Amino acid sequence: MPELSFPPRFLWGSATSSYQIEGATREDGRVESIWDRFCRVPGAVEDGSTGDVACDHYHRWREDVALMKDLGLHAYRFSVAWPRILSEGGWRVNHAGLDLYSRLVDELLRNDIEPFVTLYHWDLPQVLQDQGGWVSRATGEACAEYADVVSHHLGDRVKNWITHNEPWCTSILGYQIGRHAPGLRDWPAALASAHHVLLSHGWAVPVIRTNSPGSEVGIALNLKHVEPASPSGADSEACRHFDGYFNRWFLDPLHGRDYPADMVADYAVAGHLPSGGMSFVRPGDLETIAVATDFLGVNYYDRAVVRSQDVPEDQNEARTVVVAPESEWTNMGWEVYPDGLCQLLERLHREYRPPKLYITENGASYDDGPDGDGIIDDERRQRYLRDHFVAAHRAISAGVPLSGFFVWSLMDNFEWDRGYTQRFGIVWVDYDTQKRIPKRSARWYQSVVARGSISTD
Ligand code: IFM
Asked: Which of 3, 31, 327, 414 sits CB 3.0–4.6 Å from 83 for a disulfide?
């Protein structure tokens, strides 16, 4: 098989997020986040763990930048912890917290690694949750203020900004399914939350552009390639619904199309909307949300194969079931389906035309650990990544303006409700000693980045 070359300026990077790696949750004025609180709810996190220490990145960030430098990475996507920045009710700027990110950015730039900053990756200050969290429009306003503070301080050096990571998770996992903080199960709250997250994105973009001239701003969505389990009308209908619930509810308003009417109707029938219907949408909101951005970040892990199931209308989501086809699965129980990445990228390009795309996350959880010689032979992760790089290359060849790929994750870390039971890193973390060991996949990735191409043998 030939060597597949990527475009010369294609960015190869890795990604992490604050709560998953930093630890030091009580240092330098950081206030409590919803995850600090949620982790203490019995049964909320599979292994009963917390992000209190995580990878201790708060103290080891220099070592972690050196690791990225050694791997030859071009870019690093990380998130800023809101609870480190705005304390005391959310409005006093905590300079000690900001300093971490300022020094991290300087260190990255010194090492020729381009910082991609995510502003919100789920660690909402608890004090804002106490006032309603994302259900409240005021949290969206506070988020825009927070974006102002961070972009004001880092905007001279950071030129790539991501407002939110995975609004579906913030709203649906956090406020409807309840598997993520704050752990609610309330459909109207989830839909209002989704709206306020998107609205805060719309408010933040012009603020960031003003504070960080010449920068590029986007949002990262978790998206799935969705297909029906059979050609039956019922399965196609279930597929339409699942796609609306997971993908279009976020993609459509961000691209100036309003919330999808079919989904508004489905949610109304199921009784998921607040009593006033879509009353959380105020005049002008949709224009705000549809603000032009420079790129769309795509977090892709797997596809959804959907079939219809006969259940009462008020259990709307159960109408659609993700079927387990004969396939390969990662430790998360997620299907390995690289073709879906290419199909998703082509669809986004065809239907939404973002000016540029990045894969802001892609990777796999496998638990391979060190052998007797300390070598971590994570062949399955290497294969997973290679097959997704090939799919990304196919999309580029088909004309998709894909400009970079961020592997999730740089290192093993706190996987939310799964705690430390899942390892996504290309670098192994020994949580007892905090020793980092690059896995075989990291060394292979290093060679891909160095060559700018992959061999498909
Ligand atoms: O670890 C998460 C990350 O925080 C958001 N995207 C999916 C990853 C794997 O579950």
From this structure: 31
Give residue ranges with CB within 6 A of ligand 1: 17, 20, 166, 299, 361, 408, 415, 424
Torsions phi, psi for 18 (to 5 deg): -55, -60
**314 pLDDT tier (thresholds 50, 70, 90):** low
Tell me the per-residue pLDDT of 209-223, one tens digit each, with 9 for 90 and over.
999 999 999 999 999
pTM, two decimal places = 0.98
Range in 92-106, 210-224, 314-328, 368-382 the model is least confident about: 314-328
Does residue 43 sit in helix, strand or coil?
coil
pLDDT category, 315, cuts 50, 70, 90? low
pLDDT higher than threshold 80 for residue 76: yes
Contact residues for 338 (Cβ-Cβ < 8 A; gap 6+): 384, 387, 388, 390, 391
Residue 416 Cα: closest atom of ligand 1:
1
The helix or strand, by DSSP H or E, that contains position 65, with its residue range, turns out to be helix 57-71
Q: Which residues pair with 216 in a beta bridge?
A: 160
Averaged confidence pLDDT in the chain: 95
> How many angstroms is it from 254 CA to the middle of ligand 1?
21
226-231 contacts: CB < 8 A, separation 24 or more? 226/303, 226/304, 226/306, 227/303, 227/304, 227/305, 227/306, 228/305, 228/306, 228/307, 229/305, 229/306, 229/307, 229/323, 230/307
